[in-house]
Amino acid sequence: MTRPVSTDRPSPDKASAGKRGQLCSVELLPTAADAAVDAAADAVLARKRTQQDILLDLNLAVVAIGAKTIAPSSFNRWATRIRRDGYVRRSGAVPALKTVTFRCPHCGGDVSGVVETSARGTP
């Protein structure tokens, strides 16, 4: 005899599948908040202050730039993830990507153009 399958509740795999790979509210903040996010990440990784205290400072900075505040649950998920997986600075990621792109060996690897391009801020 087979047991009937209930359609009221989704299976655990399907219930969590929709959220995987999505950016959290901290990661969706505008680039104007990069310094505040980097400071919050440093504080989380240092483990000297409570998450509530770090979140308060982050939300003050976020409100100052006119963005929506971060919920404690979202901040907790983000903090847990960066402690587990590490953190890449938001403010330093773009120049690093430009350097990698322009040092492509197929393009001749001219490093002098990388410095000039990065200084101008153009891709």
Summarize the structure.
With 123 residues, this protein is mostly helical. It contains six helices and no strands. The protein is 57% helix and 0% strand.
Secondary structure layout:
Elements: H1 12-17, H2 34-46, H3 51-64, H4 72-85, H5 90-102, H6 111-120
Helix pairs in contact: 2-3, 5-6
Features:
mainly alpha, about 120 residues, single chain, 2 domains, 6 helices
Provide an overview of this structure.
This protein is an all-alpha fold and 123 residues long. The chain has two domains: 23-87; 91-123, no CATH class. The chain has six helices and no strands. α5 packs antiparallel against α6 (111-120). The longest helix is centred in the middle third of the chain and has 14 residues, at 51-64. The N and C termini lie far apart (65 Å). Residues 1-20 are annotated as: Disordered.
